């Protein structure tokens, strides 16, 4: 189980064969890697499932291999495509997927043992990387503290104080299963990827980014950044997990965020003590070589006010309606939802 969706195994994967299972999306949310927060956002799960399924079908239509098989409605065992589910006036909350092996990643003497991970993985495994793509560099982007503009062929001596739109997306690699994700140089990412080809991972990330960016533009959404995760099976890399949702990626509309970033920033403004404690705990864990940073955190998050939850719900639902080009959810227009979010 993840912090925002439940993971069900129907047929486990083996060293030779993919398995079958499902993501059951919940209305839980997570910010700052905390895991499940103390409240829920209604219809969030159905929103993310709908948007994720829509994107997987777009990828398949564009010959991008994925682990997606379809969606399942709560009152049926039948696996159907998204269009059939929506024609029944029911936004799905369950996505059926192929499963691969996810070996244990040992943590010993202050470091993770990827050799042990791959020794157990054989030729059928979830690649323990996130492949991140950026179409713009926001003012608060970690890229600014880790790199210089010249590293990306940009004609700046230092990072400007405004958002930087990129002519060519930047692709980076970060860890997937470590308690604190860290960005990697290409050599380290290649080693962690195991048998999977690092160039192919970048190629798939750029393809997914292009497709999601085009679809977003049709709804006047700006696709700012995102990531993919992939599995390796029988010599092929397939896009896995969930793609192009308001939790996985960042989108904006008229300069206002339409993503989980709205809730992240709200917590920064209203619960700064908790946000600072999270940051301090992560730094302490890194210094001490401890994997479980949450055990070092002196603060816990507080529930959101009801009006904030309603604004977040409307933003997810209105954004999904706009992205898929339909009235899947009873929600205000995207203009109205974005305006309300901007007033938080």
UniProtKB/TrEMBL annotation:
Keywords: ATP-binding, Ligase, Nucleotide-binding, Purine biosynthesis. GO terms for cellular component: cytoplasm. Its EC number is 6.3.2.6. Pathway: Purine metabolism; IMP biosynthesis via de novo pathway; 5-amino-1-(5-phospho-D-ribosyl)imidazole-4-carboxamide from 5-amino-1-(5-phospho-D-ribosyl)imidazole-4-carboxylate: step 1/2. It comes from Haloarcula rubripromontorii. InterPro entries: SAICAR_synt/ADE2_N. Residues 21-278 form the SAICAR synthetase/ADE2 N-terminal domain. It is an enzyme of class 6 (ligase). Coiled coil: none annotated. This is phosphoribosylaminoimidazolesuccinocarboxamide synthase. It comes from the Archaea. GO terms for molecular function: ATP binding; phosphoribosylaminoimidazolesuccinocarboxamide synthase activity.
């Amino acid at each position: 189980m993840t912090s925002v969706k439940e993971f069900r195994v129907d047929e486990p994967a083996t060293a030779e064969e993919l398995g079958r299972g499902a993501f059951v999306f919940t209305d839980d949310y997570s910010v700052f890697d905390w895991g499940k927060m103390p409240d829920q956002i209604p219809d969030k799960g159905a929103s993310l499932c709908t948007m994720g399924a829509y994107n997987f079908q777009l990828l398949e239509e564009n010959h991008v291999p994925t682990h997606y098989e379809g969606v399942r409605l709560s009152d049926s065992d039948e696996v159907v495509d998204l269009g059939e589910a929506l024609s029944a006036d029911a936004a799905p909350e369950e996505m059926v997927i192929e499963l691969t092996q996810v070996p244990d990643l040992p943590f010993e003497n202050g470091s993770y043992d990827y050799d042990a991970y791959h020794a157990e993985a054989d030729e059928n495994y979830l690649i323990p990387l996130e492949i991140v793509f950026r179409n713009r560099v926001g003012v608060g982007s970690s890229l600014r503290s880790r790199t210089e503009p010249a590293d990306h062929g940009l004609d700046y001596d230092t990072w400007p104080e405004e958002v930087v739109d990129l002519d060519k997306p930047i692709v980076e690699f970060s860890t997937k299963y470590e308690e604190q994700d860290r960005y990697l140089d290409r050599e380290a990412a290649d080693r962690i990827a195991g048998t999977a080809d690092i160039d192919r991972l970048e190629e798939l990330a750029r393809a997914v980014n292009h497709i999601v960016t085009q679809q977003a533009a049709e709804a006047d959404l700006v696709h700012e950044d995102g990531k993919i995760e992939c599995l390796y099976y029988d010599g092929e890399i397939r896009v896995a997990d969930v793609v192009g949702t308001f939790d996985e990626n960042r989108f904006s509309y008229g300069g206002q965020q339409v993503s989980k970033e709205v809730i992240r920033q709200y917590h920064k403004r209203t619960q700064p003590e908790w946000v600072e404690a999270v940051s301090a705990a992560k730094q302490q864990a890194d210094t001490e070589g401890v994997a479980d940073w949450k055990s070092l955190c002196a603060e816990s998050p507080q529930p959101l006010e009801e009006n904030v939850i309603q604004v977040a719900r409307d933003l997810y639902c209105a954004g999904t309606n706009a992205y898929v080009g339909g009235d899947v959810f009873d929600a205000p227009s995207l203009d109205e939802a974005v305006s309300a979010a901007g007033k938080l």
